[in-house]
Design goal:
The structure is a homodimer of 244-residue chains. The first copy, chain A, is of the alpha/beta class. Chain A is built from eight helices and 13 strands. In chain A, helix 2 links the parallel strand 2 and strand 3. In chain A, helix 3 packs across helix 4.
């Protein structure tokens, strides 16, 4: 009886962007648990599995179900888009399991949008960076604002997750205004939509232009650091090798 | 004639931690170019290839060679540990190629130590975080210090790359002292050594204990945010689901 619970980062969505370990973990599981949209991404690659899905905001419900099923002896994989640990379900599963030792949890990393999106734009994260979500569902806006301000002040490249949704149309604009306290309007920025999926698109622009860009929930946003350049149509943050 | 240059993140080192796309890219290449230590990690999986390696600080030399070989028609892969874009060679290759259109460069992402190390410790990066290298070979220490200070002030989780080397024995201690300006000595921290390789080890400790921890160049360091907890022996940063 294998009652291990795998928490698997599937990466941006394409089978080829999964790690071999992630594929093996999903193959070992009888039951796949996940957010509906992401479950549909992997279902074609693993059609023989049992699926349990919930809509957005059903995170606690589906994590409880996965823990129960794994504890009862069913090999189970909770799948997350991107990495299992970056805004993923690994933390919530450990919180819900508490001090219990069963089921055993194994976190299997995947490519988070900061890394997979950076590869599409060029190399915007070759130096220090911060990853910040603009969603204020679970975080006070004041906290988000302080993080944006300090990250920009420190000259970190910044990756924004969840830059907008139907109810948060102006959040990216507000974030850009905070960053503009410390960064020049010409700062090189980039956006990627639908990373690694059908309809993938990329665009490089200035911070001033980003301020009026209409992002959606499938967009990942990159703000360069003071050294970031556009070279041959790519967004590049130099590491600083002195003899380039 | 395929003269594409692949820049491939191989992840922490095990074959299973490579993405399928990374394996395919290395398989397509005739020539593998990389830092000696990492080339030796992948050579057992791809023994039939031609290898060109240079020691540390030979980055520019090996990137120039890879560009020349690819431009001359040899299918080439530059391999990087972790992700190709996070302190990897993707940026330098684009810089060296400049405004030329050949060779075509394709960046293939891999698991960076922030993600693969987090999975070993539990789930320390479930909320916003910063990735900062303590190496001052290419970055002024003042810049590093400012980034540590602002990231800690903003309550970001912090991942430290290159926390120490033979010449920089006290850098982790200095970093902890900066972070202690804003964080309590009991802040939950974790270290992982040799992620995904033989001899992998992990340890969870307080920030005060981390201050006197002896890191080496194979160590990745995680400093929690104000909400980070130790649950069942794992380092967990809650996202904030309200009904846990």
């Amino acid at each position: 009886m294998n009652n291990k619970l795998y928490v698997v980062g599937i990466g941006p969505g394409a089978y080829e962007d999964m790690t071999i370990r992630a594929v093996q973990a999903v193959e070992k599981a009888e039951l796949i648990v996940g957010y509906g949209v992401y479950a549909e991404l992997v279902r074609p690659y693993f059609p023989e599995k049992e699926y349990f899905t919930t809509p957005m905001r059903g995170e606690t419900q589906r994590c409880r179900y996965a823990l129960e099923q794994a504890a009862a002896g069913k090999s189970t994989a909770v799948i997350c888009s991107g990495d299992a640990g970056v805004y993923g379900m690994a933390g919530l599963l450990y919180e819900l399991r508490g001090e219990n030792e069963t089921p055993e949890i194994e976190v299997v990393s995947g490519l988070t949008a900061a890394c997979s999106g950076a590869a599409v734009l060029g190399a915007p994260l070759t130096h220090d960076f911060a990853v910040i979500s603009l969603s204020d569902l679970l975080t006070e806006w004041d906290t988000i604002e302080k993080r944006l301000d300090r990250a920009a002040e420190a000259g970190l490249s910044i990756v924004l997750y969840n830059p907008a949704s139907k109810k948060r149309r102006d959040y990216l604009q507000r974030a850009c205004e905070i960053i503009l306290r410390h960064a020049e309007p010409e700062r090189v920025c980039g956006v990627v939509r639908n990373i690694g999926r059908a309809g993938e698109s990329r665009q490089i622009m200035t911070l001033a232009e980003l301020r009026s860009y209409e992002a959606d929930m499938f967009t990942t946003v990159f703000i360069g650091n003071p050294q970031t350049k556009c070279i041959g149509g790519k967004m590049i943050t130099p590491r600083g090798y002195r003899d380039v």
